[in-house]
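User: Modeling request: complex.
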Amino acid sequence: MKRSAFYKYLKKPGSYRILAGSIIVGLLALATLTGGAWTSYGPDELDLDHLLTPPSVGWMKRLLATEAGLRMQQRNQAGGRGDSHPRAVTADDEDLDFLQGDSARDGKPAEDSASLGGAAGSPTDAGSGGEGPSAAGAATGGDGGYGQEARHTNKAHLLGTDKNGRDMMALLVAGARNCFLPGLVTCAFALGLGVPLGLFAGYYGGRVRKIVGTFNSTILSLPRLVLILVVICALEPNVYYTMGVLGATLIPRVSELIATRVRILSNMGFILAAKEAALSDFKILYRHLFWYQNRAVFFIQFSLIMAESILVETTLSYLQFGTKPPEVSWGNIIEGSQMSFFSGFYWITFFPAMAIILAILGFFYLGDGLNARLAYREGR
Amino acid sequence: MRSIAKIVGFFAGSLFLVSLLIFGIIHLTPGDIAEIHNLSPSTAHQLYLDRPMAIQYFLWLRGCLTLDFGISMVNGAKVSSQIAEYAPPTLLLTFGSLFLSLLVSIPLGVYRGLRPVSPLGKFISLAVYTLSSIPVFVLGYIVLAVVFGVFRFYVTTPPDGPFRFWPYVSYYSLPIFVLAVGNGTIGEFVRFISLEVQNVNSAMFIKAARARGSSLWKHFFRSMVLPIFNIIVTNMAVLLGGLVVVERIFNFHGLGWLSWEATLKRDFSVIMGITLVMAFLIRVFMLANDLLAVWLDPRMRE
Amino acid sequence: MLEVPLLSIKDLCIWFGGGGNYLKAVNHASLEVGRGEIVGLIGQSGSGKTTLAMGLLGLVKGYPGLWAGTAELDGKNLLPDMSRLITLKGDNVEKRYIPYQRAHRRQLHGVLGREIATIFQEPKASLDPFYTVGEHMLEALERNLDRHGGAATGGGLKAVGIGLLKDVGLVDAENLWGLHPHEISGGMAQRVMISMALCAKPKLLIADEPSTSLDVTTQAKLLQLFLHLRDKHGLSIIIISHDIGVIQEISSRIYVMHRGSVVETGASARVLSSPKHPYTASLLDSFSRFGEKLPMPPANPDAGKGCAYREMCAAYRGMLTQDERTRCEGDKPPGQAESLAAAAGVAPVDWSKCHYADKNKAHGPGTPSTANMDRLSAADGSQENIVEVRALRKRFSQGTRSFLALNDISLSIPKGGTYGLVGESGSGKSTLGLSLMALQDVDGGEIIYKGEDILKQSKARMLVLRREIRMLFQHPEGVLNSGMTIESILAEGLEREGRVETADKRRRVSEALEQVRLDPSHGARYPSNLSSGEKQRATIARALITKPAFLVCDEPVASLDLAIQSQVMSLLKEFQRHLGLSYLFISHNLALVKILAHRIGVMYMGYLVEEARVEHFTVSGVRHPYTRLLLASTPSLDPGIREVLAAYPDVEPVRLEGGCPFRNRCPVYLSKRDSICETAMPPLVEHSAGARVACHFPLG
Ligand SMILES: Nc1ncnc2c1ncn2[C@@H]1O[C@H](COP(=O)(O)OP(=O)(O)OP(=O)(O)O)[C@@H](O)[C@H]1O
Ligand code: SF4
Ligand SMILES: [Mg+2]
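Assistant: Request completed. Predicted assembly structure:
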């Protein structure tokens, strides 16, 4: 029976993962490149007529409305707001206290001169957490600084709007760019330094390996996130700094992986053979060891590191140390509307959360699929 | 023995390097530390801020060796007593989630390692992959949404006084769960253990033992102890890093929460102290790992 | 002949794959083993020997899709009910195989390790690195307590274990008891494996390439041990090997396998002296007459009509008449299964899968000989040397202790000739080769190549010299970077010549490929798409492309099959004749070296202990006791040689300090006990024209 080439491709290990991963990564890259060119609203356009509009797609709403959300909506109705869609809610509504965050309620906005980020809440008041896990919400205080009013307010909000009237779709697209680009910085650091260090350590061995090993073990003895916090504490909380540090913490993994492979390869004889053929060290390192033997590892690590950096970037933004509002990151969208999920406005947190999970999953699947393919090719 | 002396020496040396790194990064900060915090000259003197850099480092390190990490730049409390106060719940959280991870991942990993092509084995890998790509804070929300929003039984106040079952369990179980699952720890464990089982399973000596008809579990067990301990140690850092997020979500007052707060307020002495303590913990585990390897693996004893 | 065979396998099939696309690893094979009989199973790698044996034990790797046949040991069925497996259609083989495998393992319970014991090729890897030899022995003994009567107590068990270890020739068993596998040598590990097998007092021992990874001298002692076990314990042994020498020395009957089927069987003496199948004949030929080109076997023996071997069959191509050939082209010769049916269920004892079984003949007896080797007369008498090594010295240190891997080695390599270098593993052969290539620093001495000292040349000069001095390595897989095409690997050799035009490069690459009989189209392939013989030829092309004058060949054929070895050796010979190349040919196999070399040097523990022209290298002609041991260790049927071998003690080689390093294994010293051997290293002195030996009491 004659099978199509595609069928044959699917038969190879890892192909489904590679396929799924590439689709997601492709979408991400597309969003990064085009920016908001095709969304109806820009991320800084405020549709003040439609604050907290739910997604316009009905089935999605029904599917996604959690029990908690329904209960909240019922309460809203019982409260006499009448409309099943809480559209056009005004900011002074007392049920929306949570939007103002703890600090606003506590009436003591951050005044510590040393505090990072003026808008950050003060979490010292531990006792106030009693009624719920409402650890310091972001007091983003009204809509100041988020952009100007939208010009074409009649267009639909496919995924709804947030409390400032920003279009969720536009926010997601803008967030894609803000996690994709820092990811590239991380990769540049981790791979740009990790690969050569690994090659040197594996090839030269001896003292070079010891030095690289000491560097690696020093970095490995610090928890990654804590090291990043130390750097943030010392310097300004800049996404690109932190991504650089993240890259540095990934150097040990990359370099050790490469060094181990190189050590195994050098026992195989072709390095000796290349020396015998009078190739220079640079050519042996670059051509034989890197390009022909380890470039697959390079691409695999690239996608795994991208996944990792998206994870860390969104986490940091969530912790208020990453991308700062009004710049949009998936992490800070979630951070900025922490309690909305429990109040029925599920879409503000749900979509960014899904975006994060999908993006990470996409890179993970891609890397893992490539890895399986490599293992298959090398006959492991 | 020479190898043991070497390992212990390496332990001390790398801790020294770590302390140098932490101190170096903190003192990269632009501007004068005392000015940033409007410290009074006496506090600044207490923190050795009026001395030259090298002396500062030396004095700080000497303090650390006697468990004196200085005082907080924000509220003047002793850092060591803060750490002592916040550390126990954190340790409980960390080891709890380590335990949970092992409990779940050893059976799963062993099964997947022995039957990698079976449908269940394939499902395990897929599930593990998907779970490890959910960030801690997103998973935390999902868990909170389910438990707090739907069931409403979650206790948020830290239990006090003598041990009582329900407050303790409900306070600790969610963070432990989220830390174990959402941080990729379980995923990492399952993947590593199954790989290791696969390796051992295809080893020549297992084949020979099969051909002799002798029981295999003894050989398997002995070969798996070191790798499992090894993966625990390498994941220690990841686990401690995840604390920051988990404790923030659950408003759980431990070291991770403390470091988050210290970073917000730029409380240098606190963050330095916490980082050093965490690094110490990790290095102790690494040391134990190396010693265990020398003890168990005859090939490592030179 | 065999009334009630101990083991009888009938019509065993183990096919891998599924969905109608099978790899027939074992295809309708039948085999019988009598009580107290040693049966040899021979065939080149990939012929299905190991799958046959391991399939029997339920230890096959992977997931066979089809499994058929019967196997009985002493009347007990070894294979489970077949209906569980056979899946001719569908491709999810794993799912169906796993329950079958479980049933098979249940079936074998009480047989594995009790009735049938097995030893493998890699003895050191077969021992668990975490347990000591003693713990291994105790484990095996505890499982078989019932077979050791009253030795149930701990101390008693240990005594039994030590007794068993001594029984297999491990004299120092008490000491060995507490050692871990990484602290003992391969030969010792194999003996430990055997004595673990003996713990169960099994009826059958299956030895899968038991000596392949061991030194010749160790191998010779191991083969003697097998004979001893058969005689003492009445053990039946199946010995699997690709090496005819090993099989012929100890087995009484032989099965020859090719591409999954048994093609010939019979008494060893008959099969080896007058083979009835062309494949056997060609195997014997390549063993006895290196240097003649062998046609390669067809890719798929089952495809097409007629006898699959006719392409490579000497009878078909030469002796048969046109009519007789028609039969070969039209009919397949009956396989074992059909012959089985014809003989009413009794497996044929002396049989071959050939229409004209009497017309196949090997060209000579099954021992390697140098009789028909033509020598370069020019190199024989020539005084001109291309390379002269003077007092070369190299020290290695491992941790605290250090030793001389090369101890003032001096030798000269004739221009246009071959210098053979032999010695056991660790004797320093490779170290010498690498030093000659200036790929390793040395601690003293000179290497004069055409009047220049290689060790003193500038970098630029070395770049030029490296074009003329090239090297062949043992493992072609390792040498060819798996990510590069053959073409780009070859072209790398031209880089040092500065800029070479692309067209010129192309031309020279395909020239070099043609020289080694590879199709220029092979240039575009990756190494993984070449067979091992093609790979090694590609590495030769890699060396030839720079037009060298001198080649260091470090075990160039050690990892190859016999038939392919012969191809490579004939290529090397041809290049010497036509291109005037000189070789340093390094090998642990003296028989192999004798084929190509004009002069041979023997190394032991970093010393050159004997050096002479190739004609001197006969058991009676050599002067050093070690060389004689090497010669006697080559598998052979000659009882005189077994006697020579018996004079040597069965001890491990160790690096002895001071005096002659060989003395612990030297029969002369052991009988004389002369103290001069303990105190002074004998100098290498000339005893007759061109022959040197380093021994205080050279053999007469
Ligand atoms: N780089 C090294 N460092 C330390 N010892 C070494 C090194 N290379 C080789 N040796 C030791 O030097 C001795 C000679 O090694 P060499 O490889 O030359 O032996 P050989 O005769 O080629 O053996 P084989 O037949 O196994 O290839 C051995 O004992 C080996 O362990
Ligand atoms: S010198 Fe002595 S010990 Fe060495 S080989 Fe000769 S006789 Fe034997
Ligand atoms: Mg060698």
